[in-house]
Amino acid sequence: MADLKITNLHKHYGGVQAVRGIDLEVASGEFTVLVGPSGCGKSTLLRTIAGLETPDGGTLEIGGRVVNYVRPRDRDIAMVFQNYALYPYMNVFENIAFGLRARKTPQAEIETRVRRAADMLGITPLLDRLPRQLSGGQRQRVAIGRAIVRNARLFLFDEPLSNLDAQLRDEMRSEIKRLHQELGTTMIYVTHDQIEAMTLADRIVLLREGLIEQAGTPLDLYERPATRFVAGFLGSPQMNFIPAQLTQSGGGWAIKFGDNISLALPPRQRNGFSDGQSVVLGLRPQYVTRANGSDRPGHQRLGVTVELVQPTGSRAYITFPLGGVPTVAELESHDVQRPGERIDLDLDMNRAVLIDPESNRVI
Amino acid sequence: MTPQAPFLRRPGTVLALRYLAVLALTIVFLFPVYWLFIISFKTPEEIFAFPPVWYPESIQFANYRVLFKDGDAVTVWNSLVLAGVSTVIAMVLGTICAYSLVRFKTGGENLAVWIISQRMMPPIAIAFPIFLLYVFFGWVDSYHGLIILYTAFSLPYVIWMMRGYIEDLPLELEESALVDGCTRWEVLWKVVFPMVRSGLFATAVFTFVFAWNDFLFALVLTRTEVITYTVQVTHYFGGQSNFWAKIAAMSVLGTIPVFFTVATLQRYLVRGISMGAVKG
Q1: DSSP percent split of chain B into helix, strand, coil, nearest 5
Q2: Does A14 contact chain B (CB < 8 Å)?
C-alpha cells in the first residue's frame, strides 16, 4: 500500500506558484528523494506533506486517509529540519523525549525508547548534555533521534545535511542510509545536492518550477534522462551538451558537428530522425575515455587536442573543443600529462542521448 | 631601550582614573538613597541638625513602628497587589497578542505600530474621562479598577517588547514541536515561553515598576480603601510642616519590593535588555 499519495497538488504564495499540480505516490518503506534547484518547490511540497502548509488544491493522503486539513501532530509523521531545531534549554534526553512527552507516553517507555534510539545513533554518552555543547554532527544525530523515537509512519527530512561540512556530510549520509535499512520506514528526503539524491534514494523525484520533471530510480534518471534539464542536473561533472546535426550516411545515422567532425550513431537510436535535423548531443564525461586500440560496437574514436587538465587524484578532468563547445572527459590521471597534448579518445555513443533543441526533451 | 608611555596613557594611570570616575558616579547615584535610608532611622532632632548628621548615633525604628501602628504600611501591600496582578495579566495577554502578531500576521503590518502609539498618549489627558467612566461603573477606589487600568496601560509596551523577542525565535523550533505532537497553545507554553524567558522577565520588571511608581491614576481613582504608597507619601506633606521621618520610612518601604524584584531578576534583566538592544 502507498504510504503517501499526492494528487494534483497546488500551492501558491501570493502570486508565486510554488507547486503546480504534482502527482506522486510513495510506497511503504521506500526512500524517496525530492531534488531540484532552489525555488523548484521541493521544500514547499515537503512542508505541505508535513502539514506546515495547507495545499490550495489537490489531495494529500497518508496511509489511505485524506489529510489536507489534518493538523501536523495528527498525521503520524516525524520531521528532521535543516537547522536541527533542538530546544536549547533541554538536554539531549529531553530533546529526544519531547515528542513522546507531548503524546503523554508513560515514563518507563520514554526511557526505553530514548535509550534505544540513542544507542542506534551512538549518542548515549551525550544524553545529559545541552545542544550548545554538541558539534554539528552530534546535533544532527539528536535531531534524527527525536524523529526515530516516535515510530512514525512517515519520516520527512528537510535538507538535513546542508549545515554540515563535507566530511561529516558523507558520514551522516551513510548513517541515514543505514538507518533506513534497519528501520525500513518510509522516508521522504529533500535536498538540492544531486550526490545525496543519487546515493540515498530508492527513487528520485526531480522537481523544476513546481512540477515533476522526472521520477524514477537513480540509475534510470542518470542513464535515461527524459529532458535536458534532468540530464544536466544529475552527474558530476555535468553532462556535455554539444549542438550538432543528424545526417544519413550509408545504412545508418551519424551526427555532424560544426567543425565537420562526424560520429556514427549506434543502430538502435533512430526513432523519429530526419536528415539534417538539429539536435544536441548529450554525453557524460565518464563515457569519454582514452582510446586503447580495440574497437567496440557503438564506440567512436576521436583525436583531440587537450586544452585544460584538472587532476582530482585518481581521475583527471580534461577539456577539449568539440563542435565549438568546450567538452569535458573524465580520464585516468596517468592518461594525460599537460595541456596542448594530442590524444585519441573513445566516445561511448551507446550511452549518448540526443536532445531536441526546441523542446529540450530527449529523442 | 623601550620608550616610556606618557603618564596619562600608562595602564596604571588609566585604571586609576577609571576607578575614580566609577567612584564619583556611584556616590552621585547612591548618596540620595543612603540619605533616604538614614533619615528614616533618625530622631527628629538628628534630621534637622546642622551641620548634618551623616550617620545617626543609634538606629531608630520608631518611624516604621508608627507606620505599621497607624495602618499606613498597608498601602505598600496595596501597591504590591495592584502592580503584581496587573503585571501578570499584562504579561500573559501581551505575550499571546505578540505571538499572534508575529506568527499569524494579525492585523497586517501596521497594527503593532498602532498599538504602541497608544502608549504615547500623556496619561493626564485621559485621567479625567477615565475618572468619570469609573464613577459610572462604580470602580473608583477598587482593586479591580486600578488593575484593569494598569493592565491596559502596560499592554502596548508588553506587546511591543515581546513582539521583538518572538520575532527572533527560529520558526523551525515551533514547527518541529507542532509535528512532534503539540497544539499551538502547547507550543506557546513549552517552546516560546522558555525561549523568551529573559525578555519576559525584563519586560515584566519594567511593567511592574511602571504600575508600582504610578501616582497620577492612584491619586485620581482611589479614596481610602486601595490607596497606594505613592499617594500615602504625599499625605505627610503638610501646609505647615512636613513629616520627613515618615516620608523617608514610607519611601524605604516602597523601595524594598522593587529592590528585591530587580535584584532577583537582574540576570534576566541584563540579558533581556541587551537582546532587544542587539536587535535594534
Answers
A1: 75, 0, 25
A2: no
**A258, A336: one domain:** yes
Q: What is the dihedral sign for C-alpha A306, A288, A230, A184?
A: negative
The last residue of one of the domains, among A213, A233, A253, is: A233
Q: In angstroms, what separates the C-alpha of A79 from chain B's closest C-alpha?
A: 7
Q: Shortest CB distance from A73 goes to which of B172, B178, B190?
A: B178
CA distance B193 to chain A (A): 11
Q: How far is B173 from chain A (nearest CA, A)?
A: 5
Q: Which of A83, A89, A98 sits opposite B172 (nearest CB)?
A: A83
pTM: 0.83
Tell me: the pLDDT tens digits for B84-114? 999 999 999 999 999 999 999 888 878 888 8
Domain containing residue A196? 2-233
At which residue does the C-alpha cell 521541493 appear? A42
ipTM: 0.85
Sign of CA dihedral B125, B129, B134, B140: positive
CATH number at residue A253: 2.40.50.100
Largest CA-CA distance found in chain B, in angstroms, rounded = 87
Chain segment B147-177, per-residue pLDDT in tens: 999 999 999 999 999 999 999 899 999 999 9
Domain B64-279 has CATH 3.20.20.70: no
CB contact under 8 A, A72 and B179: yes
Q: What angle do CA B85, B91, B92 make, to 5 degrees?
A: 95
| Element spanning A242, H or E | strand A240-249
**Interface touch A51/B179, C-beta < 8 Å:** yes
How many distinct structural domains can be found in chain A? Answer: 2
Q: Which residues in chain B are contacts of A151 at CB distance < 8 A?
A: none
Residues A67, A74: Cα–Cα separation, whole Å:
9
